[in-house]
């Protein structure tokens, strides 16, 4: 039977790439695009995540799976998917929204007769799978530290920029020996030596959902995330602005403009340093086509898994659906991804 897949936010940057990759890899899928502005084809659906009255078209078109690529702060789509017994995957939620949505799903666990998947971790939620592949004896992991190289020349959507603009002045939680510690973005600088020719860079705190996922779900005692920009000047400027509390006196609109720069495309890189009692391992990933391509490809892998007959109904984080081997092999064979594992 032909599968009907709805990508809500499918007119956005990542949504468009998801649709392209899905169509290329699975031409038998029937793809629908959900947006607040009605498109020109029968597969374009008018959907406003804040207005449940617009959700009737989901039922009318017999959608099997919803891919959410836009902010749904009230979790209206999540609740609709649970009620309607539809498969659901969300790739958009920052940490505070993810925890709320996950708790909502758990509270409705007895009502769930579909696959509810949270995939808002870094680059489509693939960090957990790469950690599992790099260190299969997960109980031995004492520490996992993620380092991100972000290029202001890369294509970027509004969601991450808006999140930083809204939350840069607020503390967030990292975990050290299972004790939550409040930190702020762009503080606690350290040097990190990136692979792929980047070299040593200053890196600063960044809040991504993997902090919650790796500590609260995977029980890794110490977890941190730090990032650098491709421009050393921009990286230092952000640290300077935070340390002098300049962000606090800026208007939201000004912060949105500051974080919202987007170029024509560039590479993205992230590395995970995994520490056990007797070893340090590193997994390094480079996407030459940038964040949108990597996030979209990861999401497509999750969608394909959800539509297979091997996954039972329930609540998942995306890495919990797969064997780490299959994710590693899929990423490693993708033409624009370079993947390295070292000790």
UniProtKB/TrEMBL annotation:
| Organism whose genome encodes this protein | Flavobacterium azizsancarii
User: What protein name is recorded for this chain?
Assistant: Saccharopine dehydrogenase
Signal peptide start-end: none
